[in-house]
Amino acid sequence: MSDVPASRAKKSLKSAMGSIRRAGAALKRLKVQAPSPAAAGTTFKERRLARRTTSGLRLVLSDRIDFVNPQHWDALAAQTVFLSRPYLRVLEEHGPGNVEPRYAMAYDSTCKPVAIMLFQRVNVDGEQLRKPRTKRSLLDKPVAGLQENLLLCGNLLVWGARAIALAPGVDAALVWQGVGEAAYRLRRADKLLGESDVVMVKDYAAGEAVTKESLRLLGYRSVETEPDMVLSLKPEWTRFEDYLASLTSGYRSNAKKLQKDCATAGIALRVIDATEMQARQDEIHALYEQVHHGQSLRLATLEPSYLPALAEALGPRFVCRVAEREGRLVGFVTSVSDGATAIGYYIGYDRATNAEAPVYLTLLQSTVEDAIGFRAQRLSLGRTALEPKAKLGCQPEPLACAVRHRVSALNLLVSALVRTAAHDEPPQRSPFKKEQGAAEAA
Fold first, then answer.
1. pLDDT tens string 128-173
2. 3.40.1280.10, 3.90.76.10, 3.30.70.660, 3.40.630.30: CATH of 37-225+398-418
3. Helices marked H in 52-168
4. Residue 118 near residue 155 (C-beta atoms within 8 A)
5. Can you give the pLDDT at residue 406?
C-alpha cells in the first residue's frame, strides 16, 4: 500500500499547525499594552501639542510638477532621480490609474526652499488586497467590496527614502513637522474627491531616531518592514568578471552555471533600448503581470507604457535587459542609476520557462553587471526574494514606514494592527573570499 496519502495528510496537518501558531502569535501582538497613567498623560499632551502647532514653514502645494518653481525644485531634487521632473512627468502621464501625485515645497522665513516632498493619493479596492487563488474564504466577499483612499508620503513604484529631499543643514525634526502639516492640508484639499482616512509615510531608514520620534509626536505608528537588500560594489570591479572573481569557488561556480543553464535551454540575454521597449511593451507587460499578480499586496499596477516611457526619459541612466528564446521574450529586468546607487528595478518572467531554466536568477544576477556599468558604489535590490539576493552578496538595510488614521481614537487599533506586521529575517550568506572580508573588517 502506498504511503503517499499518509504523507500528504501529515504535510497538511503540519501546515495547519503552523497557521494556528502564526495566528496565535498575531493575536498576542494585538493586545495593546496599557502604559502607566503618568506616561500616557505626558505622551497625550506632547502629541496633542505637536498636532496643533504649525511648523512655521511656508508651504506650496501642487497637483502637477510643472506648476512648482523649477529652479527651487531642481536644486533639491538632484539628490535622487525619483524626484527629478523628467521622472515625475512620466509618473503623471504613465503611472498607475489609481495613483494621483501631489507635491509640496517647504520654505523657511527667508523664502529659501528647505524641503521638497512627493505625495500620492491612492485609491485601494479589495481586489488589490487578495492574492489570486482557486480556493475562496469567508472574508473574500467583504474584502472585495472594500474601497478606500490612502494619502501616501512616498512612492509606491520604488522603495527607500526617495520621496523627500532636505536642504543641507536643515533641522530634520522641523521638516517632519512640515510633512505632517502638508499631509493635513492635502488631505483637506482633496476631501471633495473622497475622504482619505489613512496617511502613510513610506519609507525611511529604520534606525533614524529623529524621524521616528517626530512621526510619533504627530500620531503616526511606525513599523519595520522587510529590509532593502544592498550589495556594496568594490572600486576594482570594472567588469562583471571582476565580481565573479571575488566570489568563493562554490558561489562562482553556481553563478556561471546559471548562465550556462540558460544558454543550454536556448535562452540569451541582451540589452534593448527605449524604442524596442515601446514596440514590445505588451510582451514586457505580460511578463511583469505574471510576477505582479502573484503578490498578495498590489496597491499599484504598472501601465504597459510606464517602463518604455521611463527608459526614454532617463536615457543612459536606465537599462532594460531581456531574456529571449527563438525571438520570444521570456523575461526582463530593468536597472536605474540613482547617483551612487544602482537600483535593480522591475522584473518579469514567464513562469513556465522559469521552471525549465533559471531565468529569474540569471536576470537578477545581471543587475550586478548593470550596476558596475553605471559605476555605482552600491546596488539596491529591494525587499523580496531575500535568499537569492543574499547569495549575490547583499546585506540587509532595515526600512520602516509609519501610519496614522485621521480619527485619533482609531489610532489605537492601527497601533495594534501594526504590531502584527511580521517579515522573514534575511539569511546570512558569505559568498566573497575571506581576503575581501578581512579587508572590509579592517
1. 555 555 455 544 554 455 577 889 999 999 999 999 999 999 999 9
2. 3.40.630.30
3. 70-77, 85-94, 140-144
4. yes
5. 75
